[in-house]
Amino acid sequence: MADAHKLEIFRGLVKFKSNTQKIWGVLILLSIITAIEVVLGILKPDWGYNVVLGMKLLNWIFIILTLVKAYYIAWDFMHMRDETVGLRRAVVWTGVFLISYLIFILLQEGGYVFDVYDSGFIKNDF
After folding, report:
1. pLDDT digit of tens for each residue in the chain (126 aa)?
2. How far is 20 from 26, CA to CA, in rounded Å?
3. Whole-model pTM?
4. What gap in Å lies between CA 18 and CA 23, rounded to an integer?
5. CB contact set of 60 (below 8 Å; sequence gap of 6+)
6. Cβ–Cβ < 8 Å for 27, 9
7. Distance between CA 111 and CA 65 in Å, rounded?
8. Is the dihedral of CA 116, 117, 121, 123 positive or negative?
9. In terms of Cα–Cα distance, which of 7, 3, 1, 4 is closest to 76?
10. Which of the 8 DSSP states describes residue 17?
């Protein structure tokens, strides 16, 4: 059964000889991404405060890196690469919809709360 799993990441660019090597490889990849997030969170570079699509660039970078980590966790550790195409699409499209909806809610409600605190006018008592 161990031979049934694909021992590669990055669509075959990096190949491993055993499951143990692959687990270590994915762990190192996820650790590097986490280290980048931590360093950016500590340093908070000036270019990260530029606003892109209603949010700071640094926040977009955190969201994208978190999605990359979630993808690799689901793809490799939860063995989604070995599932049928229909199940993979159902999981991915559900996640894409829910994440898009969450981003929409965060932008809408965050803008409303900012306006309330900025102008001191409370439309609804929340």
Report:
1. 444 567 777 666 778 888 888 888 888 989 999 999 999 999 999 999 999 988 899 999 999 999 899 888 888 788 888 889 999 899 889 988 998 999 899 888 888 778 778 877 666 665
2. 10
3. 0.67
4. 9
5. 52, 53
6. no
7. 24
8. positive
9. 7
10. S
In three state form, how does the secondary structure of 37-101 look? HHHHHHHCCHHHHCEECCEEHHHHHHHHHHHHHHHHHHHHHCCHHHCCHHHHHHHHHHHHHHHHH
Give the whole-angstrom CA distance, residue 98 versus residue 9: 26
- The dihedral through the CA atoms of 44, 67, 11, 78 has a sign that is positive
Distance CA 76, CA 72 (A): 6
Token pair 């669509």 in the structure block, residue: 11
SS3 state at 15? strand
